[in-house]
Specification:
The chain has four domains: about 120 residues, Immunoglobulin-like (Sandwich), CATH 2.60.40; about 130 residues, Immunoglobulin-like (Sandwich), CATH 2.60.40; about 120 residues, Sandwich (Immunoglobulin-like), CATH 2.60.40; about 90 residues, no CATH class. Strands 10, 11, 14, 15 and 16 form a five-stranded antiparallel beta sheet that branches. Strands 22, 24, 25, 26 and 27 form a five-stranded antiparallel beta sheet that branches. It contains eight helices and 31 strands. Helices cover about 20% and strands about 40% of the residues. The radius of gyration is 35 Å and the shape is extended.
Length: about 550
Amino acid sequence: MVRWFILFGLLLAVFSAYPATIRVTTDRNPVPLGETFKLIFEVEGKQDGEPDFSPLNKNFQLLGTGQSSALNMINGKTSQTRVYTLTLMPLKHGKITVPAIRFGKDKSKPVTVKVQPAGGQAQQANKDQSFFMTADPDVTNPYVQQQIIVKVKIYRKIHWAKADLAPVQSEGVEIISRQIGKDRTYKEKYKGKNYTVTELRFALFPQESGDLTLLPLRLTARVAANRAARKGYKTRVIHSEPVKLTVRPIPPSFTGKHWVVARDIRLQEAWSSELAKLKAGEPVTRTLAIIGDGVGVGQLPDIELEDMTGIKIYPEQPENQEQAGKKGFLSTRTLKFALIPSDGGMHKLPAIEVPWWNSTTDKMEIAAIPSVSLNVIGTAAAALPPAGSLIGVEPDVVQILPEQPVSAPWRMPGDARYWSWFLLLLWLVTLIAWWRARQSLPKENPQTPITPEKPAKALRNLRKACQTDKPEDIQIALLDWGRAIWPDHPPHSLEAIAQRVGSPLSDEIQSLSRHLYSGQATDWDSRVIEKEASQFEVMANSAPQDAPASLEPLYR
């Protein structure tokens, strides 16, 4: 035994004296975009350290890593070889360089992989008509910073367990991409065939002019391997077709100071008091709102009001609000200004104008509020405070509410210490009375624990309802079954149950819900509900948690 240890130590000493040699190969080159290939690292000799494959994440998606090692002796020479096999998927087409990978102090040589465009793969996905994806923009020649709505539709006639849509990527022009709302699923007929469609919408904002190419969107999904049996899943990757756009620069005819392009820009204003009954020295609040349809809140311009003779103006922090709809973003910026007139008489505030570019009519327009006249009565008794304060009081103490006159603060009558002791005594009496009433309440009986018989009985009732094939009976039985499975947090709707179970049970429950409430005939299968609920009931009883983990979201 000792001799074997000595021999092994000698072998290690022999091959450790040689530096490591790293060879890099691929199992195929070129590679179509949307398909995987294997990248193989062979390390011969003493390896200085573990490899760092993180540089690959820039242009590839790492789907798997394998490792093996061998000890060889040829002609009296001993060598150790360690092999790393990586399964990669390219993120874009073209000639992509696999960077040098470090193994401690050693490193491999770069390798170039040619990735072919995804057109052939996307066309093949459309050809089999079972699982494919489309991406359609609402405009092909936008202006710089104009909102582009890209509608992404995923068509499928197969079941999936989870799906992951990669972020939107582009070439040529920098863009800002934001998803609008949540994805929604519905039925649609495409080229005469019925599909389940998952739709997503993205708002893109190009930051400069020039040629813009939206690279093919990539969806990685776990789909059913056997459509008939619905058992077993495999990984599939589909791509949309690339989209080419031309981004136009700011037109020379735009004369505004701040460039903003939208479907609509509106200005609104409100006052906290009647403009014909203002008093010198008393503040009045002017509220301005700029509303933009088809722009993000960060693209809305600011409105500044400057002091004028006889009126001091104190701005407050603006309030921003953004809503997402089918047509993109609707943004609102609300600005409040406290105006304090010091001299009586008529004061005329200038008009407010915001130039903007109408993306629908393709011309410049001006959103405006006309000039306003203020009728101020009297003269201020004291000098106005400096900027940053309001009537000698710190700004965080005084709050001017719109549509309400400013009234004098209420003061406690009498000696303040007397009232403080009286309120303290009253609070103690109330606390003692509450505690005694609490002690007199009857003790609650502990809840009866949920026994396994209750889920089993609910499942039997669900099976009977599924055999009748009546949607109303199945709905009632599903809700009873859900309450039995999750007694601590019972679901109150079919949608709530669908969120707690996996596919294909969740798909059929959602289809049943749409059949009951949408007013349209929707395909659903009671046999699938019966079968999957039976399997789920077994897993639920064997698991310690109250509910199984839900599927990963489509887009994270």
